[in-house]
Amino acid sequence: MDDASVLSPDERLAALIQDRASRPMIPAEGALETLHIGDDELPWMEIGGGSALQMLHVDLNQGLWISKTRLPPGTQVPTHYHTGLVFAVTLKGTWHYLESPEAVNRPGSYLFEPAGSRHTLVTPADATEDMVTWFAIYGANINLDEDGKPTAVVDAKAALDLYRDYCDALGFDYSKLIVNGE
Known about the structure:
Layout: H1 3-6, H2 9-22, E1 45-48, E2 51-59, E3 64-71, E4 80-82, E5 86-92, E6 95-97, E7 100-105, E8 110-113, E9 121-122, E10 131-138, E11 141-144, E12 150-154, H3 156-170, E13 178-180
Parallel strand pairs: 2-13
Antiparallel strand pairs: 1-2, 2-3, 3-10, 4-11, 5-8, 5-10, 6-7, 6-9, 11-12
């Protein structure tokens, strides 16, 4: 017979509380180290027309990809939607969605996109600088044609493979890229 079976429920609860209270609130050992990527420590993948993407972090377990996107003035991205949530913070320049031109993203702006939100990203033709925005994307990006039919699907794994293949082809170092789930 173990000690717990001779204790009353109140005594077992008191022992549990005492045990939990004796544990440190801040891990003293076994904590993971933080990872840092400097602004110029990962290459930008050129995607045409002066547009580029800098992959920062991919979590294949969560279907998450985090990147910075750079678009020159007068750029229009294909209409698309995401199968998961998207979070965005504008770092430089301006942009908006054709579907909501009154909501202009400027440096410091935060944008939340619910899954399934359909939109067409544009940068103003009269802008004086490139737009640079940090995006955290869950799930897949589904590009659509004029009839609303899918033309391309990019998820975290596809984005990671494309970025690595691009860097490998050009001899770029992407060793600082954070990848979970491999």
